[in-house]
Structures are given as structure tokens and as C-alpha cells.
Design goal:
The complex is a heterodimer of chains A (about 400) and B (about 450). Chain A is about 65% helix and about 0% strand. Chain A contains 16 helices and one strand. The longest helix of chain A is centred in the C-terminal third of the chain and has 38 residues. Chain B is built from ten helices and 20 strands. The radius of gyration of chain B is 22 Å and the shape is globular. Chain B starts with a strand and ends with a helix. Classes of the chains: A mainly alpha (about 400), B alpha/beta (about 450). At the A-B interface, α2, β1, α3 and α16 of A face β20, α9 and α10 of B. β1 of chain A pairs antiparallel with β20 of chain B.
């Protein structure tokens, strides 16, 4: 390690102001701080600081995503072999999925990080860690059949217009990963809706066994084919067609556990989102105008990307409400809207994505009212004190 | 029945090196320094030239805008140097001390009971005792023409490694009582004392004060937090604060008729072989009470004050005027290979992102490393966890960054000073310099308002 450190120290002057490779200083800085926590010490203010930093926070989120990723890989293989009616071992299924999913992950990271590094360079910023999570989230909300160039275009779009134009990580209004998905959803709807995208090869016309449809539970529900929706346990385990990371509720809850225990994920948002979903499911049950509306609220939140969104997307601290009270409202409305959109608007079976993006836009408004309430309490006291004089 | 104000939010950082309950020998300080920066709001104008002699209690400098505010010498001796920094700003008056302290005999007798409010004010100003009164908003030295709505005293310190004030004030009951009488004569307003629940405090025997009990983690001992819960500062209102130790100086002056700044402080921190309490004088050179044999290693940070709000000094530096402790912790000026990715059994974090959560009872040696680079605000809800006030800290800090006075007022800037939000700076994932931001905002508002 000392040799590596000595080497870095030796080449460092080249990247500093006036050095030959100054134009690459952000890149060097990103690599250096990745390898070594800097030796920078406090000089004023608090002399000691919490050991946590953004790198640590982001790596915890990535660890929390790993169960979903691994299960997603396995499920890609499982769905494929199920479609063609062949039997395969656990390892064969996983390996099949691994080879299909890995390129999507790689493309997402390479495209996104390239944009990030270029922007950091131009702006003379340090490279922000935010994309490390977005880069993992994007593949997990994509269908396995997505063309790689589309992943790349969507990622670049999301990072560029979703984040960098606002000033980078911490300044963005919309969740970049969801923006990437929304981009694909509206620009290339065929690649991300219907029955074809979710099972590998289905869009290329692989031979499937009779009766195989590839429809997701949500698509079945939207088509009022309630009898085709798997039971709750199957939905919970997640061996069903869907976006790569969203199917297994076990894996998602494992991630949620990591996020909540480490304190990285916000329990207020997760809890209120789920409550909001259950509440809307219950209201729809009361009307029960069609089959979809009759589905139990629990089944509702087990279908589609609801839980994945609640745990990993809604909780993004930058785009969520920033006040504690605001977080309850924000989460509850996401849950409520997600179920409402998916049930009442058959054109958008995945209501979660739109609900979160919509609430991203409303989060500052929610915060505004929470802040106003705090101000009003202070003003009231203030006025009272003047009267007393 | 006593009502206890129970605070839940906050954080006691489990730092290693708490002051043990023993006395450590100290020498008479050969040098003493007074740093004008310790008296916030005062622009120093020297009254002495280098090389001139001064007795204890004789003025060294005055406030440029209010010449009646004097800062007097804690010792008798010679003004060795006036240390200046950038733009010739005075950083310190360094005094070489005599072996035997010679006290100024200017103000010989006072009878507290016969004095009018103006007499007390003049007495405090001329004796140099006035500068112990602090004024909020802004936490500046109190202005003589201001009228507070109340005076607040915190009788306990919850900061990391903070000394036990009951030890420091053990024999000072009479002095404190005299000072309280004096303050009562000065302004007829309530004097509130924040006392820690379950501690039998010296203040419980003092007449003329109203006791409020507090419980909870740091910053429950900060007077700013206590003001917020007892009688918060509204716009246009002024309160004064004073530290218990400074009441003792006042009381000693009244009783013994001399300006006596000798006092007990704590020497703390993981880099000391022996922590404990020492008797010294305010402003004394640190090396007079921390011997080099007592220090572990040679790459250390010396802090006058606590690790959250104190000032960086050197071993041959000086104890700050309003500090009751010296903290010695290791410097963190070394690179750490993949530090952010390691399990981190010995790294303290409020979050459970390091495996140190497996050992909840452990005390940590924490160094001065930032543990990461500065970023934009990303994580939310962290500040709220450590600020036991009805204030939205993150929004307040943002308003302070943008220098939006109107918004800062609405969000309660007058109720805080930087030390009250020091823990925000500690927990911040984005490593934002909260205290600096708040201090600059306070100075900015003060400049705009005057």
C-alpha cells in the first residue's frame, strides 16, 4: 500500500493546477480518494467528524441492492428455461441470467460515470458518489430484453438532464434512475411494456412451450385476468416475470433491512409509502367496480415495482421531502397515487414510477408547508411577546 | 414537584479520555495570553505598549466602539508582545508573569446592597468584569446599553469529555451568591439556571435564581438549548448569559477586592496518559499544566475547549478566555487505504454503517480526519436528530448559506449560536462546515442591522 501511496504522491503534481494533466484533475482526485481516504484534517469548527461519508453511504445502498440483483439474475434464467420448457440446474439458471444482466449493469455504469466525470472535470468539482447507486438502480428497473444502446441513451439522458443541468448530485429534482426508466417508457414503449420484454428472447421469437405468455402479474391484472395472477406467496418469492430487480420481495425486504438497520434508508418514507398503498388498495376494494379493484391491498403492494420503489426509489434523500413531517406525507401520497394510477389507468400499469416522479416534483411544496408551519409557531410566540410588553 | 425538561434529541459522542477525578500538578504559568477573538464583537484597542508593566486587574485593551468596555490583565507582569496576524489584526496580548501576583488597588470597597443599577454597571465596566456577560442574539460581549429580558446560566456541561462543574465550583458557593446579588442589582430580571437532573447542584443553595432541571444528551448543557426551552428569544429581544466560573470571578472581586482569575480546568483527551483537573489561571500557557511526559505520541491536536467547538492551539499555546478544558486528540493527517470500504470496528458513526455498532459500550479514539470530502447536501434528517429545539436546522443552514436574512429570522437564527449546531457538523455526511456558516451569518446580520 505504501508503494501505491508513494506512486500516487509522485504523480500527483502533474494533476494539480499548472501540471501537465490538470485537465484530468477530477479523474485523478476521484481515483485517489477511492483508493485512500484523504489525509485532510479539520482546522476550525468541530475537530472530530463522524466516520461516515458519502462513499460509505452509497456503498451501503449498493450492498442493500445486491440481494435483488442476484435474485434478478437467477430469475432471468429461471423464466427463460421455464419459457422454453427445458429443465436446468440452479447454477445454469443463474449463470444464464448473469450473462444477460451483467452487460446492462456495465453499460449503465460506463455511460453514467462518463458523463459524471466529464462534468466534474469541466466544473472543477470532485466527482460525486451519487451515480454509484443510480448506476445500479437503472439495470434493476429495466426489462432483460432492453437493447444495450437504449440503456446507454436512457442513462445519459437521466444523468445529463436529470442531474447535471441542476448542478449535480444533491441538486436534482427527479430521481435519476426513475428518469432513465421513464425515458425508455415514453420514448420506446414497445421495449418496456406488454408481454414481450420480460423473458429473455421472447421478443426475438424463441420457441416457447404452449400456453406461455410472459405477462407480468400487473399486465394480467390490468387485463382483468385476475385468475392468472399468482398467489401472494409466489409474488412474495418473486419467480415471476418483471423488471430485473423488482420481482423478489424477499430480496427487497432484505435490502430494506440493511438500509433501515444502518440508518441509511429512511423508515418514515418506507412505512408511509406502504401504508399509502394499503390505504388506496382498501379504498378501491370498497368501490370494487371491476376485478382489478377487488384485489386485496396486500396483493396490490406485492405486485409490480411497488416495494422496490418504496424501498430504493422513494427514499432517495435528495428528491424526497427533507423535513420529517414532510416525509410522512410524501411517502403516503406516493403509495396512494401508485395504486390509483395502476388500477384506474390501464395505459400505465406501472404506477409506481409515475407516482414517485410526480411526488419528486411536489416534495419541495410539501416541505414549504412544513417549514411555514414551523415559522408560524415562531411568529405566534413572537407576536405574543410583543403584546405582553 | 420539580419539573424536568427532558430532551431526547442530541448525541453523547463516546470519546475516550474523560477527565478522571484526580488533581494534576501544575506550575505557575510563565506566560499568559489574552486573545481578543475570545471576546466576540469587540474590536481591541491596546492601552499598553510592548514592554510596559501591568498589575492584575489593570486594563490591557478596550473596545473601539465602546471605550468603556475594558479587558483587564489576569496577572501582573510585563506585556511581552502584541501578536498580530493578517491585516495587522491583533491575535493575542502575551504577558510575562511575575512570581508574586501584584493586584491593582484601584477599586477597593463596594457594598453590593447600597449600589444602584448604574453604580453596578460602572463598577463592572471599570473592574473589567463586564466582559463576562454575553448577549444573545449573536453571543457577543453584552452591550452596556442593552436591557436583557432574562439572564441564563447553565450549571452543567454535556460536551464531549467536559469537566464536572460541581468539582470546579466546589468551594465557590459564597462567591456565586455575591455575583448573583450583584446581577440582581444590575438588572431586575429573572436569572434562570439550568441544572442537570439528578445532580445535587451548588446552585440549589443559591438565593435569587430560578432553577430549571434538564435531562438528555449533549447539547442539553448548552445554555442556548436551555434558553429555547425556558424562555426563547424572539426577534428584538435580548438575553444575557454568563458562565458559573465567571460568577466566581465576580464574587471573588466583591469579597476579596481583587481580580483573581485562578481557577480549575480539566485536561482531557485520549492522547494524555493522565487526565484530570488542574489549578491554573485563565489564559495560561498550556505547557504549564500539561507536561510533555503526560502526552502520548507527537502527532497530536491540542484544543482549547471541547472537541466540537474549541480552538486549535499548540502545546505552547494558551488556554482560551472562556474555555474550561483542554482536549488532546490524535491528528488524522494520514491516508487510509480504502478507508471508506473497511469494516471499521474502531470507527465511530451515528449510523450503523460501520461494524462498530457491534460494541455499543466502547469508547473511541477519534482523530481529526474529515473521513471524506465535502459534498452538497445529500442526506436529510441527520441534523434534526441532534438538535433538541423546535428549529429546522438544515433549512436554517441553507438560509444562512444564501445569506437570506428574512428567512433566517423566520427560521430562528436568533435562537442559535454556532455551538448549538456543532453536532450537526459532526454528524454531517457531506462534511459541511455548519459552525462557520452560522457564525458568518450571525456576523453578517449584526453588520446589516447596525
Amino acid at each position: 500500500m505504501n508503494k501505491l501511496r508513494a506512486f500516487l504522491d509522485k504523480i500527483k503534481p502533474n494533476f494539480e493546477k499548472g501540471g501537465r494533466f490538470y485537465f484530468l484533475h477530477s479523474t485523478f482526485d476521484a481515483l485517489e480518494t477511492f483508493l485512500f481516504v484523504p489525509n485532510k484534517v479539520t482546522s476550525h469548527g468541530a475537530h472530530i467528524r463522524d466516520a461516515i461519508d458519502l462513499k460509505r453511504t452509497m456503498s451501503i445502498v449498493i450492498i442493500a441492492l445486491i440481494p435483488s440483483l442476484l435474485f434478478g439474475m437467477f430469475n432471468v434464467g429461471y423464466q427463460y428455461y421455464k419459457a422454453i420448457g427445458e429443465s436446468a440446474t440452479f447454477f445454469e439458471m443463474f449463470w444464464f441470467g448473469f450473462l444477460k444482466v451483467l452487460p446492462i449493469v456495465v453499460v449503465s455504469y460506463v455511460s453514467g460515470l462518463t458523463v459524471e466525470f466529464i462534468f466534474a472535470q469541466v466544473r472543477h468539482h470532485e466527482v460525486n458518489e451519487g451515480f454509484l447507486v443510480s448506476g445500479m438502480l437503472i439495470p434493476l428497473v429495466m426489462p432483460v430484453n432492453i437493447p444495450l444502446w437504449m440503456v446507454s441513451v436512457a442513462t445519459i439522458f437521466a444523468v445529463l438532464l436529470g442531474k447535471e443541468v441542476f448542478g449535480g448530485t444533491g441538486m436534482n429534482i427527479f430521481n435519476p434512475a426513475l428518469l432513465a426508466r421513464a425515458f425508455v417508457f415514453f420514448a420506446y414503449p414497445k421495449q418496456i411494456s406488454g408481454d414481450m420484454p420480460w423473458t429473455y428472447g421472447l421478443n426475438e421469437g424463441i420457441k416457447t412451450i404452449d400456453g406461455f405468455s410472459g405477462a407480468t402479474p400487473l399486465a394480467n391484472a390490468a387485463a382483468q385476468a385476475i385468475d392468472k395472477i399468482p398467489d401472494n406467496l409466489t409474488l412474495f418469492i418473486g419467480l415471476i416475470p418483471g423488471s430485473i430487480g423488482e420481482t423478489s420481495k424477499i430480496a427487497i425486504l432484505l435490502g430494506a433491512l440493511i438500509l433501515l438497520y444502518t440508518g441509511v434508508g429512511n423508515w418514515r418514507i418506507m412505512l408511509s409509502t406502504i401504508l399509502g398503498g394499503l390505504f388506496m388498495g382498501f379504498i378501491l376494494n370498497l368501490f370494487a367496480a371491476n376485478m382489478f379493484m377487488q384485489i386485496s391491498p396486500f396483493t396490490q403492494i406485492l405486485m409490480g415495482g411497488f416495494l422496490f420503489g418504496a424501498v430504493f426509489m422513494a427514499t432517495d434523500p435528495v428528491t424526497a421531502s427533507q423535513t420529517n413531517t414532510g416525509k410522512y406525507i410524501y411517502g403516503f401520497l406516493i403509495g396512494l397515487l401508485a395504486i390509483l394510477i395502476r388500477v384506474l389507468n390501464p395505459a400505465y400499469p406501472e404506477g409506481m414510477m409515475l407516482a414517485i416522479l410526480f411526488m419528486n416534483a411536489l416534495a419541495p411544496l410539501i416541505d414549504h408547508y412544513v417549514v411555514e408551519a414551523n415559522i408560524k409557531r415562531r411568529m405566534k410566540r413572537w407576536n405574543k411577546s410583543t403584546i405582553n410588553k | 414537584m420539580t419539573k424536568v425538561i427532558r430532551l431526547k434529541k442530541g448525541l453523547n459522542i463516546p470519546l475516550s479520555g474523560k477527565p478522571e477525578k484526580n488533581w494534576i500538578n501544575s506550575e505557575t504559568a510563565k506566560e499568559v495570553a489574552i486573545c481578543p477573538d475570545d471576546f466576540i464583537g469587540i474590536v481591541p484597542k491596546p492601552l499598553l505598549k510592548e514592554g510596559e508593566r501591568v498589575k492584575a486587574g489593570e486594563p490591557i485593551f478596550y473596545h473601539k466602539d465602546k471605550p468603556e468596555i475594558l479587558v483587564v490583565s489576569p496577572v501582573s507582569g510585563t506585556l511581552k508582545a502584541i501578536k498580530r496576524g493578517l491585516k495587522r489584526k491583533i491575535e493575542a496580548f502575551i504577558l510575562e508573569t511575575d512570581f508574586d501576583v501584584e493586584y491593582s488597588d484601584k477599586f477597593s470597597s463596594i457594598n453590593v446592597n447600597l449600589l444602584s443599577s448604574d453604580d453596578v454597571k460602572n463598577f463592572l465596566l471599570q473592574s473589567g468584569l463586564w466582559v463576562y456577560l454575553r448577549q444573545r442574539p449573536y453571543n457577543i460581549v453584552a452591550m452596556p446599553d442593552s436591557t436583557p429580558k432574562a439572564i441564563f446560566i447553565s450549571a452543567f456541561d454535556t460536551a464531549p469529555l467536559a469537566p464536572d462543574l460541581e468539582i470546579i465550583l466546589k468551594d465557590d458557593e459564597d462567591y456565586i451568591q455575591q455575583a448573583i446579588y450583584l446581577l440582581k442589582r444590575l438588572v431586575n430580571v429573572p436569572i434562570y439556571v439550568g441544572v442537570k437532573e439528578g445532580v445535587s447542584s451548588i446552585f440549589e443553595r443559591i438565593k435569587g435564581v430560578e432553577i430549571r432541571y434538564f435531562s438528555g444528551p449533549h447539547p442539553a448543557g448548552n445554555v442556548g438549548i436551555q434558553i429555547h426551552h425556558i424562555d426563547p428569544i424572539n426577534k428584538g429581544e435580548i438575553v444575557w448569559t454568563i458562565r458559573p466560573e465567571d460568577l466566581v470571578v465576580m464574587g471573588k472581586y466583591v469579597i476579596h477586592k481583587k481580580y483573581d482569575l485562578s481557577r480549575t480546568i480539566a485536561i482531557t483527551g485520549s492522547q494524555l496518559k493522565q487526565t484530570g483537573y488542574v489549578k491554573t489561571i485563565q489564559g495560561a500557557q498550556v505547557s504549564s499544566f500539561i507536561s510533555s511526559e503526560n502526552i502520548i505520541g507527537n502527532n497530536n491536536r491540542f484544543i482549547s475547549g471541547n472537541v466540537l467547538t474549541g480552538k486549535k492551539i499548540e502545546l505552547n499555546g494558551y488556554l482560551g478566555f472562556f474555555d474550561r478544558m483542554i482536549s488532546v486528540i490524535p491528528e488524522g493527517n494520514q491516508y487510509e487505504f480504502l478507508g471508506w470500504a473497511m469494516p471499521g470496528f474502531n470507527k465511530f458513526s451515528v449510523s450503523r454503517t460501520f461494524f462498530s455498532w457491534l460494541m455499543p459500550k466502547k469508547e473511541y479514539i477519534i482523530n481529526t480526519n474529515y473521513h471524506g470530502g465535502e459534498r452538497a447536501f445529500v442526506i436529510t434528517g441527520q441534523y434534526e436528530q441532534v438538535v433538541p429545539m423546535d428549529i429546522l436546522p438544515q433549512h436554517l443552514v441553507k438560509a444562512a448559506i444564501t445569506k437570506n436574512i428574512d428567512m433566517m429570522e423566520k427560521l430562528g437564527i436568533y435562537e442559535v449560536v454556532e455551538e448549538d449546531l456543532a453536532l450537526c457538523e459532526f454528524v454531517c455526511t457531506s462534511k459541511i462546515e455548519v459552525q462557520k456558516i452560522i457564525r458568518e451569518a450571525l456576523d453578517y446580520i449584526r453588520a446589516e442591522m447596525s
